[in-house]
Amino acid sequence: KPHYQVSAADRGVRVVGRDTKFVRVLSRDNDRYHYGLWIDNDSGMLLKMQMTTPQGEILEQLQVTHFYETDSVPISLSDVRGVQQPPRLLDSRNQQEPRFGATPQWLPDGFTLQRSNHRLLAQTRLPTDHFLYSDGLTEFSLYIAEGDVQSLPNLGVQGPESIYNVQSQGLAITAVGKLPLSTLQRIADSVVVSAD
Questions:
Q1: Cβ neighbours of residue 47 under 8 Å, at least 6 residues apart?
Q2: With 80 as the cut, is the pLDDT of residue 84 above it?
Q3: Strands of 139-146's sheet, edge to edge?
Q4: Is the separation of the CB atoms in 18 and 41 below 8 Å?
Q5: DSSP per residue over 147-165, as a string?
Q6: What global pTM score does this model have?
């Protein structure tokens, strides 16, 4: 991706006793997080991942703790058709086009709209416009609801999944994603309601 600098080292540290290649994915700006990936030399499987802020603070780390290779798929994993699925949190049949006419005027370079809809949120039944944006590596969601109905205070929390909520133009605007808080704030603060 042009918005990331990718570099690879032939040798990474050993993870769960296996040799790895190390791949570093650095944001070319400070509008997104950086990633470190340790990939198994033999299988190509991701064994470890670190997500860090542009300043180097580790926000999230995932690591395989045991790794076994077999020649065949265990019978218990070969047929999942009979496994009961969890309930749907969102019924896609009840989605409609966004209603509030609000869109962000600024996005980090490379982010494009993947989908948008109007729906009732699962837990609160709050009528909300939802927009999903991605740059191909990470994504964020933008939720827009009537300001007098949504009860979240103005807030911002940075972490592996940052959140920023603001009341503006009679709307509650919430941005959530694996992006720095300052990026989500800039996106949400740029939302305007069209005159149509």
A1: 15, 16, 18, 20, 38, 39, 40, 63, 64, 67
A2: no
A3: 112-120, 127-134, 139-146, 171-177, 162-168, 155-157
A4: yes
A5: TTT--PPSEEE-SSSEEEE
A6: 0.82
